[in-house]
Design a protein that fits this description.
The chain is of the alpha+beta class and 368 residues long. The protein has 10 helices and 18 strands. The chain has a 6-stranded mixed beta sheet. Strands 7, 8, 9, 10 and 18 form a 5-stranded mixed beta sheet that branches. Strands 13-16-17 form a 3-stranded antiparallel beta sheet, covered by helices on one side. Strand 11 and strand 12 form a beta hairpin.
Length: 368
């Protein structure tokens, strides 16, 4: 069941942001934004579903087909519509209840909502001014409370156990896909579900988003495992690297560079620092070592209900980080035809710096 007091608190916090940003109406679809604000996870299809929030009212546009299932999760009012009626009349009633019938109102749209839902809402209003959620819902979600911290921590402890088991299971002839299945089974045994998993043998690690397949492990081969589970609504995410057999020439040198980049980024991660500063701290280490053109992506991404969400730790991000922000630090070096090394931690910003969720060391794992 939904924690209704939590919903009240989060909507109250959103209304404070709306007042500060001159926002008249916030509209979210069946997404993680809706789950965050109201604890509701309605079935998503072509039938318009929206939660509209103004200073005076909050309610759902809800297909009658889904209302009974959704009702157990919220006590907010529903404006229901049937397939033989269409949603326009119910949407007009909801807008009137929100006091959102005037001209030139400032509307925040859920950037993950279906385009036809957004356009239907905008077409029902009189010349609205629209933007997305960066300074309202997304900003609130970026600052995690202690309950969210515990959920994310618990997911990472499960992840630690699964990744350790995966490295321990490495043997000649095992496939990437078989290690993925082992990780999935470890998650299930601990009450979690697979969020994603990329197991990379040898040169496959040079592809940051490799899809694991039938490649068989041979001796003296690099191994990269990037995986995450979901537990109690929140995910984990971690990358560890190692070697099955004897490391090839240059591997340990590159590993040491990436580890130094992780440490530099963690040291730079403090409340009040711009995201670009953290990216630069990691990137400078890798560039100074001569691998700048082999660091192919941003340094990190936020993590919460979604495994990728704001804030993004990138060279072009001027976002000022705040206490409670949760994000990844994951620099990497990718050498085509040889191997890739990425070391990833998820951290939360405390008053005095970054706290790491995982308790598994980043040391190079040696097997066989």
């Amino acid at each position: 069941m939904t924690d209704f007091p939590l919903t009240v608190a989060r909507i109250a916090a959103l209304r404070d942001r709306m007042e500060q940003t001159g926002t008249d109406l916030v509209a979210v679809g069946p997404s993680s934004h809706m789950a965050y604000l109201a604890g509701v996870h309605p079935h998503g299809d072509e039938r318009p579903v929206m939660l509209l929030i103004s200073q005076s009212y909050a309610g759902f546009l809800m297909p009658a087909l889904n209302s009974a299932a959704a009702r157990k999760d919220t006590d907010l009012p529903f404006h229901c519509w049937r397939d033989d009626q269409g949603p326009d009349s119910a949407l007009a009633e909801l807008l009137e209840a929100c006091g959102a019938t005037g001209a030139n109102l400032s509307v925040v749209l859920d950037e993950t909502m279906r385009t036809d839902f957004s356009l239907r809402l905008l077409d029902a209003m009189d010349s609205p001014r629209r933007r997305f959620t960066e300074d309202t819902v997304a900003l609130l979600r970026a600052s995690k409370d202690e309950a969210e911290f515990k959920a994310i921590k618990d997911a990472h402890l499960v992840n630690d156990t699964a990744v350790k088991a995966a490295f321990a299971a490495l043997k000649e002839g095992v496939t990437e896909a078989e290690i993925v299945e082992l990780i999935k089974s470890e998650y299930a045994a601990l009450g979690a579900t697979l969020e994603f998993c990329s197991v990379c043998f040898g040169a496959s690690g040079a592809f940051p988003h490799h899809t694991s397949g039938a490649s068989k492990l041979e001796r003296d081969t690099a191994v990269l495992i990037d995986t995450g589970c979901r537990l109690n609504g929140y995910p984990s995410d971690m990358t560890r690297c190692g070697y099955f057999g004897k490391p090839e020439e240059g591997y340990e040198e590159v590993f040491a560079v990436v580890e130094c980049a992780v440490k530099a980024a963690i040291a730079a991660a403090k409340p009040g620092v711009r995201a670009s500063v953290i990216d630069k701290a990691a990137r400078d280490v890798i560039t100074d070592a001569g691998y700048g053109d082999r660091f192919l992506h941003r340094t990190g991404h936020g993590l919460g209900i979604d495994i990728h969400e704001p804030p993004y730790i990138a060279a072009n991000s001027d976002v000022v980080l705040a206490q409670g922000n949760v994000f990844s630090i994951e620099p990497g070096i990718y050498l085509d035809g040889k191997f890739g090394i990425r070391l990833e931690e998820i951290v939360i910003l405390r008053q005095d710096g970054a706290e790491i969720f995982s308790e598994m060391p980043r040391d190079m794992v040696r097997v066989g």
